[in-house]
Here is the input.
Amino acid sequence: MSSSIELVRKIFDELVASNLLVNVKGRKDPLVSEYVIKYGDKCPSIASIDEDVSMDRELTWYQVLTMGIGLKLSINRVGLSLGSGDGYIRITLRLMNGDRLKASEELIMTCGEIKDSIYGKSIVDLFINLDVISRVLNTVKERRKLSDDYIDELLKFLSNAKSRIEQDIRRLVSAYQWFEE
Here is the structure.
């Protein structure tokens, strides 16, 4: 367990040192500390999107960290809300299996002044599940025939951030004992 805590600290130290995360409220455990993802100085112009994305009868695993263990949530539907405000981008994911809500995740990225924050756990969950989130965002882009590049830019930003910590994320996933729900 101590090795997983050290890995989590290493991940957050790297992201903060790279100026990709801002520590808003530090606590002893980075998973319950509050952060905001620093997107840049200017937010892209994002139209509000509320979309329900079905995984076409295929089940997908969405992995979430809890205290000491990890849960693999079986999902086949994701409700996505994407929008921006004055200096921030907010993504909300409602992870579902049929009509049953399994979990929800909220991600906040700042492009200026910090107005809100999220727990470190959500940031680690984001990087563990970036492939699932990318698939959902790309499905929405195709479905809505979005011609502007903000979803591509957002995914590129997140992929570049993950590349800095990818080895540690893999080690962290290996260090946890995962249970299926």
Q: What stands out?
A: The two ends are 22 Å apart (CA to CA). Residues 150-175 form the longest helix (26 residues).
